[in-house]
Design goal:
The protein is an all-beta fold and 89 residues long. It contains no helices and five strands. The strands form two sheets. It has a three-stranded antiparallel sheet, with no helix packed on it. Strand 4 and strand 5 form a beta hairpin. The model has no long low-confidence stretch (mean pLDDT 80).
Length: 89
């Protein structure tokens, strides 16, 4: 049995919104409804990571395939801040 996982050795991004779908022999990458942020400092326009495939149910030899996801801005509006700064003056 082969074990698959999302792998980011540099821990560059928060990839908790990504998950792997496994149906039979087919594997796809899913993205939770909250999505991937494109806006800095917490996001990026491109997410680079890898899928690791390890045989013997995760205890054997591992191979990696690079994955790159490009996030586009479809609404063309800037982000709306959720925290307001107040001055005491």
């Amino acid at each position: 049995m082969i074990r698959y996982e999302i792998y980011d050795p540099r821990r560059q991004f928060d990839l908790t919104n990504l998950f792997l779908n496994e149906v039979g022999l087919r594997r796809t990458i899913g993205i939770n409804s909250s999505g991937l942020s494109r806006d800095l400092p917490f996001g990026s326009s491109t997410y680079n990571f890898a899928i690791a495939a390890t045989d013997e149910n995760g205890s054997g030899v591992t191979s990696y395939i690079p994955v790159s996801i490009e996030v586009t801005d479809t609404n063309n509006r800037g982000p709306i801040p959720t925290v307001r700064l107040h001055s005491n003056q």
